[in-house]
Amino acid sequence: MTTQPALTIADYKTDEPSWWCPGCGDFGVLAALQKALLELAIPPEMVTIVAGIGCSGKIGNYINSYNIHTTHGRTMPVALGVKLANRALTVIAAGGDGDGYAIGMGHFVHALRRNPDITYVVMDNQIYGLTKGQASPTSMEGFETRSTPQGSIEHPVRPLQLAIATGATFVAQGFSSKQKQLVEILKAAVQHRGFALVNTISPCVTFNKVNTYDYFKAHLTDLDTMPGYDPTDRELAIRTLIEHDELVTGIVYRKPDSVPFEDRLPGFRAEPLAAQSLEVDPVDFERMVMSFR
Amino acid sequence: MLEEIVFKIGGEQGQGLDSTADTFATVVNRLGYWVYYYKTFQSRIKGGHTDFTIRLARKRVLAAVPRVHVLAAMDQESIDLLSKELVNNGLLLADAHFKPTAPANVDLIAFDMTAIARELGNPIYRGMVAIGASAALLGIPLQGFKDYVAQRFSRRGRDIVEANWTALQRGWDEAKKLAGSRTFEMAPPPEDDGNRILIAGNEAMVLGALAAGCRAVFAYPITPASEVLETAAKLFPRYGGVAVQMEDELSALAAAVGAQFAGVRAMTATAGPGISLMQENLGWAGMCEIPVVVIDTQRGGPSTGMPTKHEQSDLFALCLGGHGEAPRIVIAPGTVEQAYADAALAFNLADNYHCPVLIASDLGLAHWKTSVPPFQLSDITIDRGPLVSTEELLHMGRNVFQRYARTETGVSPRSLPGQPNGQYLASGSEHGPTGKVTEDPANRRYMMDRRLRRLRGPLELNGQPVPGVRYSGDENPEVLLISYGSPIGAVWEGADILRGEGIRTGVAQVRVIQPMPVQELQPLIDRAGHTFVVENNALGQFAFLMRAHGIHGRIGSVLKYDGTLFQADEVASRVKQALLTEGVAAD
Prior knowledge:
The complex is a heterodimer. Chain A is an alpha/beta fold. Chain A contains 10 helices and 8 strands. In chain A, strands 2-1-3-4-6-5-8-7 form an 8-stranded mixed sheet, with helices on both faces. By secondary structure, chain B is α/β, with parallel strands linked by helices. Chain B folds into 4 domains: about 5-180, 3-Layer(aba) Sandwich (Pyruvate-ferredoxin Oxidoreductase, domain 3), CATH 3.40.920; about 200-380, Thiamin diphosphate (ThDP)-binding fold, Pyr/PP domains (Rossmann fold), CATH 3.40.50; about 385-455, no CATH class; about 470-580, 3-Layer(aba) Sandwich (Rossmann fold). Helix content of chain B is about 35%, strand content about 20%. In chain B, the strands form 4 sheets. An 8-stranded mixed sheet of chain B has the order 6-5-4-1-3-2-15-7, sandwiched between helices. In chain B, strands 8, 9, 10, 11, 12, 13, 14 and 22 form an 8-stranded mixed sheet that branches. In chain B, α3 packs antiparallel against α6 (about 160-180). The longest helix of chain B is centred in the N-terminal third of the chain and has 22 residues, at about 160-180. At the A-B interface, β2, α2, α4 and α10 of A face α1, β7, α7, α9 and α10 of B. β2 (about 65-70) of chain A pairs parallel with β16 of chain B, so a sheet runs across the interface.
């Protein structure tokens, strides 16, 4: 590592003009993520963003990190591969509610089981934006969209409860408009030693006229200011989520003694795999070969 | 005395026959014989028929033959299914316990093996009794089996070793008594150092990959590829590497690509159904120009097909699968030593061509064990391909490095996460030289040409050509046989049979399926009388691909798609039949 002048927010930005609609919640998420990385002083080249398909997946284009834009719904396994290859990297998976909870739902559950040291930012707008307005797994029942003109007849998924029930070690929800809190949540998520889910309410101003900024300002409860809320209490977390129908912000649940996947893999070393020697001891190799005799 | 002999043992799955057959094969390999060892089994755990065939010889054999000298039957079904494979003076050994009935013309040697095993205190000894009896009937001295038992069971105590010896000896004695002078006499092993291993393709590929610096395997269990994951899970942690069982094949490939993006040699292994699931991410890796290695152990398709049966019907999926047009390399080992070498070659190709490299393995290669001299670490070279150095990047400064810069070959240096100033976007969307997404028409033409141009000519590594075809046999042959994968053993042997009958025969083993080695194949076809492409599928997939690349001449196909491998005799007789009908083989 070379000595560099102190990092500024400019170091985390690219010059690519954004494709998001003016007013999109994702702008807030982008700003908070860049600020969080700056405040943690993580050099941009040590960050890898693994982004999914959809409006939210463009977030990597606007951050001066290494970026890999995956196929739809596959950020979780790609992020795992990146992390195992170089555990010194700060790996952030990012995508929307469709990418993560529809096509990506299977991988989501298994990522939670494994608990790799990865942060997953889901920009949840309860709709499919880039394909112009179909229902998503987090859409409310009765929500009228292009694919559900008579109103959705499906019960929405509850990602925060699902995550906790599956064994997640860090579950939080942010709101793109509540910048300060979102920055703190993201910092805590990145620093958490394990899988950190940050579901971020990020309204789609173009296609979702129901779940708007005003709607959320009226309905969200801030757990950080709730007296006596203990995020290490798993049962309290579930009860609170049920009580508020997941309309909360803050760190919902955090397991203090989380051991990430990498630390449980047999033989896995502290030194990044990508930096290790590719050599094999010839005597050992011969023994391996001769074991087939 | 026989120069080679074939032993077969059959019974019900879940009765310990795997272990019995493995023991037999291991011993005769250690004795110095060349072994070709294969099995038939069903896609279930207990019950159902299974049989194991061990062809042992004084020279290398790589194919099944339609004859059995000694058949050991542990149940009636094995007699009913397999006794017709016995040669005229073949011997049927059976456990009298199940009251065997044999066809009239078959020489039955039966005694109660189960009773002997129970006498010795455990029904599991039945396998050793059968081995002892079989050795007697084959004319292979018992000492080698006793030495093996002593070594294998030494940690379990003297009593266990002696009980096994007794089982072996009792089997031997009973068989000798019943068979008298009708036993076979297998010639002693060849007079070389006999220092060979007995290994199947799956395990050989893991050793090759490890030697080549692969440190990550992501895979999902599937017949017949699971051993790749399992072997890697045992060996890779010793070198800090990982073998992760993923939730499906799709994520297995995705994780391998992610690891490669971050600079670690990673691979996955699967069979046909998994290849179908991986198509999207194969195109994605090709679009992003990220190296990755995928092993396909082809089996009976389509769909679930026949999971425990051999086939070579994934070529179209391997070469042409997935939407759009993205580069991929497909290589085809045919022997276990080629499997070892090709695993390493695959990584070198992937790192130099920046695209997926698929290894067209097959069930016969993946699972069937053959004797081979021990693999050498020194035979493997590691070539990481074009990588931009950190010094260069620091010198460049920010926003200068172009991951997809213009080069003559279409391949340009990679940066790896962690390197300052090397940041870029790897995207499945069309992009420009820095990785930024664009749909500009001129850029699109540049990027399509760039990605596809790299595979327009024959493959090269470090300025040296990578052989696409390996030829053996007569110059200007009357018959040219083209084949790939594990059937090559039967084709080589079949060619020997044809030569023995006065037909000048050449064999072209295809080692690179894509890019098609046109410049190597066409001259061979031009110089031959008739050409036959021998493959295990219904559509003649390799012949189709050859013609698609403009290869022409008197070319016919010899196809087999009943789930079983070609046998040497069969290749010869099918070719002769096809010659009579002017180069067209009807099945």
